[in-house]
Structures are given as structure tokens and as C-alpha cells.
Amino acid sequence: xxxxxxxxxxxxxxxxxxxxxxxxxxxxxxxxxxxxxxxxxxxxxxxxxxxxxxxxxxxxxxxxxxxxxxxxxxxxxxxxxxxxxxxxxxxxxxxxxxxxxxxxxxxxxxxxxxxxxxxxxxxxxxxxxxxxxxxxxxxxxxxxxxxxxxxxxxxxxxxxxxxxxxxxxxxxxxxxxxxxxxxxxxxxxxxxxxxxxxxxxxxxxxxxxxxxxxxxxxxxxxxxxxxxxxxxxxxxxxxxxxxxxxxxxxxxxxxx
Amino acid sequence: xxxxxxxxxxxxxxxxxxxxxxxxxxxxxxxxxxxxxxxxxxxxxxxxxxxxxxxxxxxxxxxxxxxxxxxxxxxxxxxxxxxxxxxxxxxxxxxxxxxxxxxxxxxxxxxxxxxxxxxxxxxxxxxxxxxxxxxxxxxxxxxxxxxxxxxxxxxxxxxxxxxxxxxxxxxxxxxxxxxxxxxxxxxxxxxxxxxxxxxxxxxxxxxxxxxxxxxxxxxxxxx
Lengths: 256, 223
Known about the structure:
The complex is a heterodimer of chains A (256) and B (223).
Chain A: E1 6-15, E2 18-28, E3 33-37, H1 44-51, E4 59-64, E5 67-68, H2 80-87, E6 90-93, H3 105-115, H4 121-134, H5 150-162, E7 168-172, H6 180-195, E8 200-203, H7 207-213, E9 216-221, E10 224-229, H8 231-236, H9 242-254
Parallel strand pairs in A: 3-8, 3-9, 6-7, 7-8
Antiparallel strand pairs in A: 1-2, 1-4, 4-5, 9-10
Chain B: H1 8-12, H2 14-48, H3 51-65, H4 69-83, H5 90-115, H6 119-127, H7 132-162, H8 174-185, H9 188-218
Helix pairs in contact in B: 2-5, 2-7, 2-8, 3-5, 4-5, 5-7, 6-7, 7-9, 8-9
């Protein structure tokens, strides 16, 4: 079997005295779609933010394609330029979209392409057009974020991340800030990317979506991976795991 | 009250006022431009610098914001050449003083603007692999300009009014022009009324056009 794209071992991270990640072990293989679920405060978002080093981690290791994220071999923090280069390899989509408000939809996508990937403006614009088309916003290339709905903004957010051709895409509760009727259009885009073989690690509260779209479910609790497996197996085995069972119970009650 | 208004002497010497108004505007524009550079540089240094630089900048800001401008103008024009070997004319001296004075206000404006940028936008810049300098120029400064534009307009308009202080060192701006007419014709009310009207009218035109600029930029702000 190929070595995994992302390897996380004994990852630890504290904010002050609060230990958010106690010891996380997780592998993500090329082309895999892994969904992380779990109660709030279990460290899911922090885990994602450590993977592209938006947060520095305190202990353990994160490796992407055999190079350590954020630190060199002597475990010293890498320089800002090296960090920027590494971050360009991991795309991230945020809960609150975080589009650059002064740039159009196309401009948001082009910024990384021109400044980081060093593409010409016209080449970057062509790529932006292709991705906007892909997320169903070809006609909104020149719209500012303030002129877009939440669902549209988030689709631009996804296009901005994938246009950089990252090795892995990190999705941080990307539908949590959306009105219910806008969730579907965003999940549709994610489903399309999964079908094309994009490697994804997503934190989500959309349990039904996680079950249907992911190849593996990871249940986090108290800063560690409490259970993982293929979605159907994990859900079937929930009876044996009280914490997972009580977490899923909330969703069973509604629509699960 | 036996005073009857007679504006004819004012009209006869209107070139003094008109020339003064033009110079006042020039003083304000140049001082604002230099002040913006000072303010931007120090604001960026402040938010990324260490304790010592922060303190040094705070001392500059507090010192200039809490001193009457007229005293600074006297000190720079009359005092400084006594201490160091420098020669400059009154206009240069005044522009230097007003620029540094404006800079002190603008550091605070820009600093609070930089700090008001939503954290997530900076994270987004980091996540696509922008270096710190690229984040500054392509994410933080454009966002900051939008946030600070209203405060920037206000600063510009007060700088325009502050240029009247230059009359105390005989820079021939608008207030000095009114003084000249007064001293040479004794038409004190007419001269100062006319100057006041000109300050007012110009101030309103500036306010109106700056608000238009702000509105254009506000479209780019996140709803």
C-alpha cells in the first residue's frame, strides 16, 4: 500500500492551560475523503488549523508527503517563506468564508495564483474562470463578496482553495454559517470534488453528508480520536461506544 | 453700531485671499501625504514590533497629540534653527511641522484600522500561502484603507483648517491674506468674514467629495 499523504502522530496542542489536542493519531491517504465529527470543544477545528500551521502545535508530528509541517528536522519553526510555501500545498475553506472583501470573486481566486504560484494575470484569470464555472458561479466573476449570498461566497471560498491545486483540502465546518436552504449547493460542490479524487479532510456537523460522502469517519472526543472506520461500520458499532452513541443520538432523533 | 459693511476693498485685494486659499490647500495636501506615509509606516511597525518600538511610537503620538499646534510651529520655526544648523523658509518649516503632527494622529487611525481587520481574512491569506509582506500589501492594507477612510477624511479636513496656524509665521495662506487686508485697509470684519466663508465653502466641498469617495469604496466592504 502507498504511504499515506498525511500522517499525524501523537499531536498535542494547548491554549494556555487548556489542553485541546491530547494525542491525535490520524492518517489520510491520497484521494481519501475523511470526515471528522464530534462534539464541540473536541479539538476538530484546532486539528485542521495545525495541519496547515495556522496554529503551531506543541508536540507530536504532522507530515505531508514525508515533510514535517511547520518545523524542520531540528524541530525549529521554519521561516515564514518556507511556511508560506507549505501552506500553499494545503487548501483551506473556512466556516466564515473569509473572502477578501476588496477583491471580486475572480480576484479572490487570482491572488494566490499570481502571488504564490507566479502565474500571469491572464493565466490566473482563465483558471479562476474555470473554477468559478465549476462551482456554478461563472456569471459572478466580477461580483464583490458583499454582493454574493453566503452559499455563493462559500463556493468562491472553495474555488479559491482548490485553484491552488493543493495536495489536500481542509474543510472547516463550511456549512455551519449558512442558512439551511444554502447548504445543499455547497455540499454539492464538495461531492463533485470527492468524485474527482481530491483528498479531503473535513470537519462537519452534517452527519448525513459525512456518512454519504466520506470514505472514512473519524469521531473525536476530548482532544483525541475516539473511534474511526468506514461510515457504515462506525455507525453500526456505535452501540459499543457510549460517547459516540450519545453524540449520534442527537442526530438520530432528528433526521438521521 | 455705526459699522457699515463695504466689501469693495476685499474684492480689490481678492488675489491675496485666493492665493492664500490655494496655498492653504497645498499645505494640507502635502502635509497629509507626508503624514500618511509616517502614519502607515509607524502603524505597521507598531502592530508587528516589540515592546520598545511600541513605547517609542506611543511617546511620539502622545507628545504631538497633546501639544497645541501653534507651539509646535513656533518651536520648529524659531527654536530648532537655534539648536541645530538648519535653514528653512517658513512654508517648509510649517509643512514639516504639520506633517509630523498629522502623522501622530494617523498612526492611531491606521493602527486601529489594522487591528480591526477580521482575523479570518488574515488566516485566509496565510492559508493560500502568502508571505507576511504579501499579506500586508494585498490583504491587510487594502482592508485597512476601507476601514479607515472616514477617519482619514476627517483628518484631512481638520488639517485644512489647521493650516491657518501658518499665518503666525507669515506663511501667505488664507488667514494671513485676511490679516494683510485688515492691516492695510482696516476692514477687519469684511476681511475675516470673507476668509471664513472661503474656509467654510472649501471645507464643505471637500467633505462632500470625500463622502462620495467613501461611498464608492464601501461597496467593497463585507456586508
